[in-house]
Every structure is written in C-alpha cells, then in structure tokens.
C-alpha cells in the first residue's frame, strides 16, 4: 500500500491542469467552500500555473472530495474505484455545487475570451457561459457524464462544437441521435479505443473507429479520458477560433490520436494526472512522439525514473476541519 496523495481533480479540474502543463493559459470557474480542502486544491492548481482568480470561496459553496483507490481484479489487472464517504467515520464527503446562474454576468466581465470553453456538468450557469463565449468564436467542448434531463442535454448539444462521452456512462447516444448533432462527436470505449463522427454540416450517420494503443505495465487507467480531452483540445486549438469550420478528417484524426497517446502514457502512472508528477513536458513530448510512431508504450522505457515530487501524508479529517485562510 502506498501513502495517500492529494491532488485537485474532477474532469474539469484535470483538463485545465493538464492544458496548463501543455503550456496553455487556463481559467477554471468554480464555487468552492472556504475550507482547508479548497486551499489545498487551489495550491495544487497554482503549482501548475492554473489561473484561479475565477474560483470563488465562501460559506455557500462546497469543495467536493472524492477518494480513489487503486486495486486489482481477480486476474491481477489494475482497476480503480471511487468512494464518496469518509473512511474515518462513514459520513458523506462534500459534493459538487454549481456556480449560480446569477453570477454568470459578473464572472464573464472578469474572464478573458477563451479559444475553448470546456464544461462537463449540465447546469444553467455552464450553459449560459457556453452561449456567451460561443458568440465570440470560442469552441465549445461538452463532456457529460450522463444525459440527465433531456431538455437541458438537448440545449447543450445545440451549443456544443464537440461532445465527448464514455460509452459506459452514456450507452445509447447513437440510438437517441442516429444522425450527427454536433460537429465532432466522440464516443470513448476504454481499452478498445474510440468512435467518432465529424462534419460541420451535421449530416453523418456513420461512426469511424480508432484503435487504442498497446500499453505495457498499466498502473492506473484513471484520468486517461481527461488526458485524451486535453490532447484533442490542444491540437484543435492550433487552428484558432472556429477551427472546426476548416479542419479536415485527417486533422481531426491527428488530434484524436494525440489525445489517445496522452491517455495511454498516463495509464502507466498512478493518479488521474500521474504524468505531471513524474515527467516534464519535454520528456512527455518525446514519449508521445514515439507512441504515435510505434502505436505502443511501456513504462520500461523510462528506466524507473523517480517522481518529480511527492505529497505529504494526510488524513481526510484534516480537510474538513475549520481553519484560518492560508
């Protein structure tokens, strides 16, 4: 058993941190509590040069805490699970609260116009942010974990330029939407790769399959999808605002493969952003280049490289106690 590690997370938190690691300027928007957990979360994001001035902290907010445990199945294959209760007392850990829709106008006055707006939660504030930034040419990247209320899901589809979802979370998307609804639709299917549909005219009914990369020495698959999303965003953004109006199928596949390669490499480290605590961006770029050429990756090529930094041991209770701002 390894000591616990404490990192900012969630799909949105991971994607903005990864993009910052890839030399982006990122600005997450969140509504957190003013508690020890939020201070540690923000400190971790700042370590990676994420801009945190759009994150609010007050008594009305909440700092979600999720425990990830890495174990093995009966065949010895690494698997992970998430827990939402405090193992010390069995109580529910704090959960997510969305930004209030009444705050959207104030936040947009402070926020720069992004090239890409990413959201993974379906709520009124996220939808209003997407509408606002889309007017200025931002690419809207929507990554839902479920469909939820169909009316709101449809509203998100009408705004989105890219939708990416996992087929183990949304199993019937192609049945609900036999014809393309978004310029780029991506269905991830775990170790089997991904399917996609692309076309700005929204006429496609057929999906194209991309195989996954072969990975040796898998440690933890958590976060692979977040690295994939960040990689796709990073490559598509190279074409600037309204990129999906000009990208070819080859451009799209290059972006998807780059995202898949990042996700594959991260599977060889523990934690959703394990790459960032073990490699620098130069090393990662060299490795991804080899992965794209050879279609495989093994941790053995790193020669047992030592982690860049480690997290000090902690207890969940230390994140829940009231303490002065730091």
Given helix and strand content, the structural type is alpha/beta
Count of extended strands = 12
The helix content is 25-40%
Q: How would you write the strand order of the largest sheet?
A: 5-6-7-8-9-10
Report the sheet with the most strands, covering strand number, pairing sense and barrel closure.
6 strands, mixed
Radius of gyration over alpha carbons?
19 Å
Terminal CA distance reads 31 Å
Strand fraction equals 15-25%
How would the global form be characterised? globular
Order of helices and strands: HEHEEEHEHEHEHEEEEHHHEH
Q: What is the average of the pLDDT values?
A: 90
- Which stretches of 5+ consecutive residues score pLDDT under 50? 306-310
Q: Helical stretch count?
A: 10
How would you describe the overall organization of this protein?
The protein has 326 residues and is an alpha/beta fold. It is built from ten helices and twelve strands. The strands form four sheets. A six-stranded mixed β-sheet has the order 5-6-7-8-9-10, with helices on both faces. A hairpin with a 5-residue loop joins β8 and β9. α4 runs parallel beside α5. The longest helix has 18 residues. The chain is globular and about 50 Å long.
Q: What is this structure, in a nutshell?
A:
This protein is of the alpha/beta class and 326 residues long. It has helices spanning 10-21, 36-47, 104-110, 124-134, 150-159, 173-176, 224-237, 249-266, 281-294, 317-320; strands spanning 30-32, 55-57, 67-72, 78-83, 116-119, 139-142, 162-166, 184-188, 194-198, 208-210, 214-216, 296-298. Helix 1 crosses helix 7, helix 4 runs parallel beside helix 5 (150-159) and helix 8 (249-266) crosses helix 9 (281-294).
């Amino acid at each position: 058993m390894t000591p616990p590690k404490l990192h900012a997370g969630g799909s949105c938190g991971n994607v903005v941190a990864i993009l910052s690691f890839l030399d982006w300027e990122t600005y997450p928007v969140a509504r957190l509590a003013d508690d020890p957990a939020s201070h540690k979360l923000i400190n971790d994001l700042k370590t990676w040069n994420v801009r945190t001035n759009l994150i609010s902290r007050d008594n009305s907010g909440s700092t979600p805490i999720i425990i990830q445990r890495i174990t093995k199945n009966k065949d010895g294959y690494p698997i992970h699970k998430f827990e939402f209760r405090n193992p010390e007392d069995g109580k529910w850990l704090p959960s997510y609260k969305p930004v209030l829709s009444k705050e959207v106008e104030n936040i947009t006055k402070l926020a720069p116009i992004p090239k890409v707006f990413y959201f993974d939660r379906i709520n009124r504030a996220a939808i209003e942010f997407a509408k606002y930034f889309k007017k200025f040419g931002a690419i809207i990247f929507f990554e839902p974990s479920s469909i939820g209320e169909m009316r709101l899901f449809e509203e998100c589809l009408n705004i989105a330029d890219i939708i990416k979802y996992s087929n183990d979370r949304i199993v019937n998307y192609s049945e609900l939407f036999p014809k393309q609804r978004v310029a780029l639709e991506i269905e991830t299917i775990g170790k089997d790769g991904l399917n996609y549909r692309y076309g700005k005219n929204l006429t496609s009914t057929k999906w194209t399959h991309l195989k996954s990369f072969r990975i040796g020495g898998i440690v933890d698959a958590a976060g692979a999808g977040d690295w994939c999303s960040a990689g796709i965003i990073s490559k598509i953004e190279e074409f600037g605002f309204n990129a999906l109006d000009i990208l070819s199928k080859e451009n799209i596949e290059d972006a998807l493969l780059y995202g898949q390669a990042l996700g594959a490499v991260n599977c060889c480290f523990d934690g959703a952003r394990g790459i960032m605590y073990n490699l620098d961006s130069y090393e990662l770029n060299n490795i991804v280049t080899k992965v794209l050429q050879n279609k495989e990756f093994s941790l053995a090529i790193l020669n047992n490289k030592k982690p860049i930094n480690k997290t000090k041991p902690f207890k969940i209770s230390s994140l829940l106690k009231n303490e002065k701002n730091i």
